[in-house]
């Protein structure tokens, strides 16, 4: 490609948000793009001017001034527009493309989410990615609220890309009302969005597997949810020596707040502050707790309780009468019956960051301590009433698609997923492309997958492609065989080759 | 629930966009909500005032002034926040929830999309739902541009919810560059967004199945794509008497434009105008064509050609030398070899509404003529260069999830999809819930799906649930049997009942 004089650089007026030097160039895949003499900081760029420059330049760029007769119809297809915009070929910051190899991994992960959900009798649901902003705005100071991808749509509605799935679930449950037969056992795999500060490995979107049980007040529900996650871990090769669950109950905090006659209204706020305990200094936590109205003495007891790592120690502090202790004991007893005792441990410091949890909370963590929480969940018996609905007992968890992949990489057990196809079908002669199409149709009607070679290519190319796509058989359609109603079949793993009658091809 | 005095209505300050009379009420599912005396049109509402009203009212609303001793821990979970917001329980206008029954249908449809893509050897890919706005802004007057869900993110980037998948595909192909082995055969199933005027049956989001072939200049690629759609139709019970494909080539228009020495730059604009031919009056079309710069004579020939419905008639008008005729003939010849001749017909009026098509275009239509196009696609050999990439021959189609469902409904062949589960496991005694959990774990480890009853419920309730979820077996864990290491198993279709040893349960 000949070098292009910089005066021929074409600008697209709609791209003015992205105007950067070097950014617009007709050269493609060029490593050293010609430097553009403008700097957007130095010279204000008027999109209108650029647009007319583009229009003025386009005829010479296209090199075709209109053919004039029909023979020029062979001169190649027309250009779409009279300007070229060199776009940023990366997905927007914090988002991902899924080329085939990434998509295979995503599908593998989702398949396992679905398979576990099937084993536990959960039904799949989904909700809009775009929801009313109001659904996600709570006042407890959660991180999630400041990270909302929200905007006003063309109908002046405040909308947001969902940061989580649970509020949509609550909305749908209220909407369906009495028509639903309880308990509901629902799961969803949905993309969620948070406008986070980008740090290594943190993205602005992720997929989240949720399982929720609506209508069961007993702790059997939480036990069943954790059991599902354990089943999932086992399925993908993760053991109790790799990960564990920290379990707590927010009722512990609630009991402490009540013992100091602290208003119920502080509960969610206090939980959200405590959730930050491993992220910000302890003095900061104390300050925040006091600033929302907790007396010094209560802050002290609270922080003391948070360091407790055994149920018996907790019982000594709280006494044995409260719900918190009773439910936690029941959960640990059920864990034994489900067979996952070695996976769970009590940890009073776990409260989770979402405002709406009311009872048992839990999170999955890697025992090596290298990663963020793998998943998390809990009971949220009062969420529906905050939306104006009648409360129903409810619990659930969210399990993202990012940290688990990191863990599998750390352990070196990320599956190697290759494309798989049964046949590659190729005509040996351009005139036989129709015949090859007939063969492909026949095989596909029998349920066989077929990569049909759509151009005349040398055999060497065909073998290379067959290897790349992992084909099991190569079926060649050649003139001599085709006249006899036959094709040549080569098993690619063994090299075994034979001529087979078309109607005997399975 | 006692009636609530209107002075106790609580407002959520974040909801001020939605403030309507009647909208905020503590009553739930109430048909005649008490009238609220304010009108947002008459009295300006200050969210700050409302917030403090809410705070002032909250203690009496909660009815708990702080317990004072630990026994009050049994008084129920704390409220999340000090206000109730009655949300709109419907998904945002033009969007959908997928409760289990809708999700089953969506999964069934997607399964068939995937199965056909597998049979034809296509690999699955995906892209971000949120893309740079620049990717979708073309200047040919397409409807799609005015319908963009776009906004500025918190980092001041112009972004848009994708209205289609092809530009993202082009972006990814440019990004991957030489690392890709051509041809690519990629498919995607993705949600797309358009802010359309809401009419019956039209939504603002839909899922779209796309298949694209990158790197094949020959019309074998288009023939393969149409073959895939035919395979899909057959799979779901649709025949050639229900639907057909109208096929044309944009090179027909191109040849006409060239014969009148009309600038190449008008090509995309003319295509977009012609696409509206069945939606707006013909005089309007003529006026638009003239206004972009086509001479009267050219408009007349163009409109004459558009009414042509046979290839031979077209050949008479254009002569036999051009690419358009040659490619169309090849496509019809290949259709015969693939075995779908009866599905396709030539129709010069089909040009499709997207600016970037350059060659063969096609759309699937219902022969009853009741529905919009079912799917559509074509060749777009020049899209990559409009983004600053090197062009590659390319073609593809989009197939939405809405019209096909309408067609299946019209034909009365929408599948009836019911939940399916192998076992429902229930403890006959509250003390045996742990035992039931053990049974559930055992069965799930053997790959059996189990709905575990999580509460103590009467047997009548259990049978009703078993019927509702379509369980095959009911497994009861009772005291007498459990002591013997056995459970009671009932085959629900036959009523056959037996006691089975736990380790013999398959």
Bulk shape of chain A = elongated
Number of helices of chain A: 16
In which order are the strands of the major sheet of chain A placed?
1-5-6-11-10-9-7-8
Main interface by residue count: A-B, 168 and 169 residues
The end-to-end distance of chain A, rounded to whole angstroms, is 49 Å
**Rg of chain A, nearest Å:** 31 Å
The total strand number of chain A stands at 16
Q: Please state roughly what percent of the residues of chain A sit in beta strands, choosing from under 5%, 5-15%, 15-25%, 25-35%, 35-45% or over 45%.
A: 15-25%
Main sheet specs of chain A: 8 strands, mixed
What does the model show?
Chains A, B: Keywords: Aminoacyl-tRNA synthetase, ATP-binding, Ligase, Nucleotide-binding, Protein biosynthesis. Chains A, B: One of its GO terms (biological process) is histidyl-tRNA aminoacylation. Chains A, B: One of its GO terms (molecular function) is histidine-tRNA ligase activity. Chains A, B: Its EC number is 6.1.1.21. Chain A has 506 residues and is an alpha+beta fold. In chain A, 34% of the residues lie in helices and 18% in strands. Chain A is built from 16 helices and 16 strands. An eight-stranded mixed sheet of chain A has the order 1-5-6-11-10-9-7-8. The first copy, chain A, has a five-stranded mixed sheet with strand order 13-12-14-15-16, with helices on both faces. A three-stranded antiparallel sheet of chain A has the order 2-4-3, with no helix packed on it. In chain A, helix 14 (433-445) links the parallel strand 12 and strand 13 (450-452). At the A-B interface, helix 1, helix 2, strand 1, strand 2 and strand 3 of A face helix 1, helix 2, strand 1, strand 2 and strand 3 of B.
